[in-house]
Design goal:
CATH topology of chain A: Helix Hairpins
Helix content of chain A: over 70%
Number of helices of chain B: 25
Order of helices and strands of chain B: HHEEHHHHHHHHHHHHHHHHHHHHHHH
Number of helices of chain A: 3
Order of helices and strands of chain A: HHH
Helix content of chain B: over 70%
Largest sheet of chain B: 2 strands, antiparallel
CATH architecture of chain A: Orthogonal Bundle
CATH class of chain A: Mainly Alpha
Strand content of chain B: under 5%
Largest interface: A-B, 13 and 13 residues
Structural class of chain A: mainly alpha
Number of domains of chain A: 1
Distance between the termini of chain A: 51 Å
Strand content of chain A: under 5%
Radius of gyration of chain B: 29 Å
Structural class of chain B: mainly alpha
Radius of gyration of chain A: 17 Å
Shape of chain B: globular
Oligomer: heterodimer
Shape of chain A: elongated
Chain lengths: 101, 631
């Protein structure tokens, strides 16, 4: 197990998440994909903290920050999606284009 | 104790009155008009303290000894101050302005009674008094210019006070635009002086012009140019040829306004300006000759037109023009004292004449045509007496005020200019006596006409100012003589550098008296006699008469110039403005933005993945850019 393994795992997870965000239609799935990307970043941070950094606590602290913010973001986003479903009976993001020019 | 340091209070009182009346006047009993009168009365009282203080401290030797300054603003090396200068000239003007303004405002109480906008009227009057007093006190050219424009504004507002009448609105516009031509000259003249000396302070500028330190001499062209341009400002304000055309039309305003602004105060601002910068003009003899010529020409033209006009107020307006011409002639001849003395004597007398004209109009339903008047002395004894005193004074009959000042002018012209000027000056003085006799005879004497039968004397609020002004006109001339108590005559008081005693020239003084009396008697006899005789004379000089009645065709010439030249040029400019500036410039920018927006709107799809792709591509580019930099 070297730093490289963690890097590959992190990159793979990030790309999966990115694909999900861009390709999915369902707002809930997009939210999950975003979580995936955030956690990929977390792995990255913790791995660097454990292997490379002269001051290991920095990366870990930032990872905890990211987790906290992700939790808040999920709460907010789920609220928006619920509201959206009540208004439109659908959470397909292709149909949500009020801001179209 | 109020002294010279507090002279700045005098305009401040009136300015405060203006603000008060304008803001809360309509809520006060009587619309607050008395505030303005209290303010000017306070100014008049303060003037006496200032005058007494000036005598106590002995007179200043040169201009600008008594400055009182407060910094106004500084920009770069240039500091401009709220400065006043208290010297005999400004104190004399303070006295004239506060006194006449007080009389006129009291008179206006009765004259404007019942007018629905009387609060605005008195607010304008207060603002005018404040600006005029600032103008005479200013110690720097910037403050002077600001006040100069403010009095022009007040003149505009008051001429057009009855703007419902088309003629009043047009006259106000004409006065404003015509004087503006002169004002532009004045502004450029001031800027030339300021750029070449680096200061606005009048004292310093005059110092630099007359007695420069080595290496600091001004270029001749600068002195010459600024003198001519500043004189142009005076020409506009003081209604001199060729910018005099606004003054007769300005009579469309209320008559007390004519008395204050267009006889005694604002129109003499031009004379005052030349007097204030007198040392500058003395440096350039050509310009003083120009001033004298313009003054003399205007004096003759004004007197001629006054002789044929049939409108009482216009007669007085032309007479004002003519006397302003006398003042500038005196200045051009180097007679500083003569000009200022005549300014004061004429100001008081002419203000009174206008107020009597107002009194006549008041009695006759605003009639101003003298052909419909006659015999008013039976109905209006006080008005008649006041008019007679004013007319005799301006005709130069001893020992009334303007006789002394006219004698001073005579001396100055005789000493300082070519004899041709003297001859024409005497002609103008003769005409002055003639038209005054004509007005007096036709309006107040002879049989009562149909229109004058129901005339009546004006209320005492109007006659008391007349009586006071009349008494002053009777005695004012004697300030020319040494009165004891350290006062050695106005020749010693006004301008220390040119001290001279009052004297009668052995030849010319009697000639002046004879001409004044002769002119007056001739006019009297002529217009008291049968109408046919006057008609016969009129016929014999028919072309001249036509020329005078048509005001030398100058109004027509200017109208032609406006229609054929100015408006045509304006149309071309208007096309340029519409096509290039408006369509191309202003609308062009707007249209470009709208077009661009219409094209770009298709980029905003509202699809989440489009934005996502955009973000990803953007991040990749930023990452690439950072990466290539680290290589």
């Amino acid at each position: 197990m070297t730093l490289l393994h963690f890097e590959i795992l992190s990159a793979a997870l990030f790309c999966l998440g990115l694909y999900g965000v861009l390709a999915r239609r369902s707002a809930v799935l997009i939210l999950m994909a975003i979580e995936l990307m955030l956690n990929a970043v977390n792995i990255n941070l913790v791995a660097f903290a454990a292997y490379g950094s002269p001051e290991p606590s920095t990366g870990m602290v930032i990872a905890i920050f990211v987790i906290t913010i992700a939790a808040a973001e999920v709460a907010l986003a789920l609220g928006i999606i619920l509201r959206l479903f009540r208004e439109r009976s659908s959470i397909n993001v292709d149909e949500i284009d009020l801001m179209r020019g | 104790m109020i002294g010279m340091e507090q002279a700045w209070l005098i305009p401040v009182y009136s300015f405060a009155a203006f603000v008060l009346i304008a803001m809360v006047g309509r809520y006060l009993p009587g619309k607050g008009v008395y505030i303005s009168i209290i303010a000017i009365l306070a100014g008049f009282v303060t003037f006496w303290f200032v005058l007494a203080d000036l005598f106590d401290r002995s007179l200043p030797d040169t201009f600008g000894e008594w400055h009182f300054m407060l910094e106004w603003f500084t920009t770069g090396d240039l500091t401009v101050a709220w400065g006043i200068v208290v010297d005999p000239l400004s104190v004399t003007m303070l006295g004239l302005v506060t006194f006449v303004a007080l009389a006129v405002q009291v008179y206006s109480l009765a004259y404007m009674k019942g007018d629905s906008r009387i609060d605005a009227y008195f607010a304008y009057h207060a603002l005018f008094a404040a600006s005029m007093l600032t103008l005479v006190l200013a110690d720097n050219l910037l403050l002077l210019y600001v006040a100069w424009e403010l009095v022009g504004l007040c003149s505009y507002l008051l001429i057009g006070f009855w703007w419902e009448r088309r003629s009043a609105a047009e006259a106000a516009k004409k006065a404003f635009v015509t004087t503006r031509i002169g004002d532009v000259g004045l502004l450029i003249g001031i800027l030339i002086l300021v750029t070449s000396t680096g200061t606005f302070d009048i004292g310093e500028i005059l110092q630099r012009v007359t007695d420069p330190a080595p290496g600091e001499e001004l270029r001749n062209a600068a002195i010459w140019g600024s003198a001519v341009l500043i004189f142009l400002g005076a020409v506009g304000k003081s209604a001199q040829f060729p910018l005099h055309v606004w003054l007769p039309d300005a009579m469309a305003g209320p008559t007390p306004v004519s008395a204050l602004i267009h006889a005694a105060t604002m129109v003499v601002a031009g004379v005052f300006l030349v007097a204030r910068l007198f040392p500058l003009f003395e440096e350039v003899p050509n310009v003083t000759l120009l001033i004298a010529s313009v003054g003399l020409l205007t004096a003759l033209m004004g007197a001629g037109m006054a002789l044929v006009s049939t409108d009482l107020k216009r007669i007085l307006a032309y007479s004002t023009m003519s006397h302003l011409g006398f003042m500038l002639l005196a200045l051009g001849a180097g007679g500083f004292t003569a000009a200022i003395f005549h300014l004061v004597a004429h100001g008081v007398a002419k203000a009174m004449l206008f107020l009597t004209a107002g009194s006549v109009m008041h009695a006759m339903d605003n009639e101003t045509d003298i052909r419909k008047m006659g015999g008013l002395r039976h109905k209006m004894p006080i008005t008649t007496a006041a008019f007679a005193i004013g007319a005799l004074a301006l005709a130069g009959v001893p020992p009334l005020s303007a006789f002394f000042s006219k004698d001073e002018i005579l001396l100055a012209v005789q000493e300082g200019l070519n004899p041709v000027f003297l001859v024409f000056f005497l002609v103008a003085a003769l005409l002055s006596a003639l038209y005054m006799a004509r007005a007096l005879r036709l309006v107040f004497f002879g049989p009562l006409s149909q229109e004058t039968e129901h005339a009546h004397e004006s209320p005492s609020l109007m006659t008391v100012p007349l009586i006071v002004l009349g008494l002053v006109t009777l005695v004012l001339g004697f300030v020319a003589l040494p009165l004891g108590g350290g006062f050695e005559g106005i020749g010693h008081f006004l301008f220390v550098e040119h001290v001279h005693n009052f004297e009668f020239h052995a030849v010319w003084a009697p000639v002046g008296i004879v001409l004044a009396l002769g002119g007056f008697v001739t006019g009297w006899v002529l217009y008291a006699g049968p109408v046919e005789r006057v008609d016969r004379i009129r016929k014999r000089f028919s072309p001249l008469h036509q020329l005078l009645v048509n005001k030398f065709y100058l109004d027509d010439l200017y109208q032609w110039g406006i229609d054929q030249v100015a408006l045509r040029a304006a149309r071309i400019v208007a096309v340029f403005d519409r096509l290039v500036v408006n369509d191309g410039g202003v609308n062009g920018f707007g249209g470009t933005v709208v077009n661009a927006g219409n094209r770009f709107r298709y980029l905003v799809t509202g699809k989440l993945y489009n934005y996502g792709i955009g973000i990803v591509i953007g991040v990749i580019f930023v990452a690439l850019a950072l990466w290539t930099r680290t290589l």
